[in-house]
Design goal:
Number of strands: 4
Strand order of the largest sheet: 1-2-4-3
Shape: elongated
Radius of gyration: 26 Å
Length: 166
């Protein structure tokens, strides 16, 4: 007499296999999501750069401009709130630095601390303007209001009305 159906061992094996596949899929999906978030860190740096550019351009005619904090940008009404420039996956903005030499556009540097060296490497993502060192990434961005057309228009204005150029 032949019995039909599945044995307890075959059902258990199928459940174990399905559980292993589910764990593999969900852990990989979670890692992909984290990598995607970290790789978008440069977008936050560019959003922050827009705010710092606005801050700098409003103050550069009066002389040396102190490097702002995110709180300064929010207090000045340039940013709506600090979450607009919050770095993903545990990244924390350590510093904003403004470097300005004569006859060159201002350089803005953003130093961000990540949870691990691997996170920092993913966040830097091989971008030419990002340098990863340990758990830190420093983005160096040029004052984007100093494009060729903006500089030449500014120079024409200064020639006509006098003043100094940022």
């Amino acid at each position: 007499m032949r019995e039909r159906g599945y044995t307890l061992v075959s059902v258990t094996m199928a459940m174990v296999l399905a559980a292993m596949l589910a764990i593999t899929f969900f852990s990989g999906a979670s890692n992909d999501t984290r990598n995607e978030l970290l790789s978008r860190s440069y977008l936050v740096a560019h959003r922050l750069n827009s705010a710092v550019t606005t801050y700098y351009d409003a103050r550069c005619q009066s002389g040396v401009v102190a490097s702002p904090s995110v709180a300064d940008l929010v207090a000045g009404g340039i940013l709506q709130n600090s979450s607009v420039v919050a770095f993903p996956a545990g990244g924390v903005l350590e510093s904003i630095t403004i470097n300005k030499s004569a006859n060159t556009p201002a350089l803005f540097k953003y130093k961000v601390r990540f949870l691990s060296q691997g996170d920092a490497a993913i966040a830097a993502g091989g971008k030419l303007n990002a340098v990863a060192a340990g758990r830190f990434v420093t983005w160096t961005l040029v004052n984007h209001s100093n494009t060729e057309s903006a500089v030449s228009e500014g120079d024409e204005y200064l020639r006509a009305f006098g003043g100094t150029s940022c």
